[in-house]
Amino acid sequence: MSNLCNAIQHNHLPIYAGDRLAASKGFGSSSKTKSKRKRTGPALQEGNPEWVPVAMVSEFKDGKDTLPKILRDNSAIVLYQVGSEIYCSDANSTAFKFPLIDANIIERDGGPAVEVPLDGTVYDLESGKVLEWCPRNNPVRFLLGALKEKSQPKDLRVYPARVNGEGKIFVKFAPE
Q: pTM (2 decimals)?
């Protein structure tokens, strides 16, 4: 069980760790469920243990639509800005554990999705469902796809994310 799950079970939820990316041990795992940026009232106060403040919307800079965050327990997430919506997922893909920091956000009919730069796997950002598993559409991906040919696709863990009136992003790690 991941450190994050242990923290949740023992009511020691991770808190915003600022920009301490250099101090991290890498990118870790997280949870599942829908994630949308919604402005709400009292539920997103600092003292609410279900919603953890992780970042500010203003941290998305230089046209980047992904924002990696290391949590206090050294697990990691990636936040995605798609228009006025914020989504959140584990920091690594499920096929080859490749970091999603530079993932491509794709607009699809069913909503936004994220494509892993290395192996081309595509995940739905709202549900985490695999939409395309290790496509063989270039020489590198052909090789990687062959390695995962007999593997079952594994969904990406996603989390609900919301933004309060001051632009602070909160994420809910506990299951709903």
A: 0.72
